[in-house]
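The protein record passed on for reference:
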Amino acid sequence: MTEPGGTEEAADEPDESPERFDLEETVSIEPSSVEIPEAPTVRTFGKNATDEQLQGAIEGVHPDLLRLFVASVVALNLALLAFSLGVMVWYFEGMSRIGGALVFVGAVAGFRTYQYYREYDTRDWNEEDPTDNEVTNS
């Protein structure tokens, strides 16, 4: 603060800073008491992957899960393409029949993708693989 004469007052006492927070005093966690889960491992094949390696990786997947995944990818790609192309054809070219039909196809494909997801979500994937229980005729 400045005095009327224009000189500043010197602070007689230093500012009292608040007491520092010490985490080690407050929380004491023993490293052995905390269990850290192991990170999952993922097989990578790199650029030199062979067809046999990739086939072996696909064989480890439940066949119904693989079917749902591929069907969902195809249906969603169809939905995005048909819907967006339909809107553009309708708006820019004025072709309401073709554009409307494409929008309808895109909406149906999008709904089918949703049905694939619901099928995946409601299924109990802990069941055994139906291909593992092959009955052999003797």
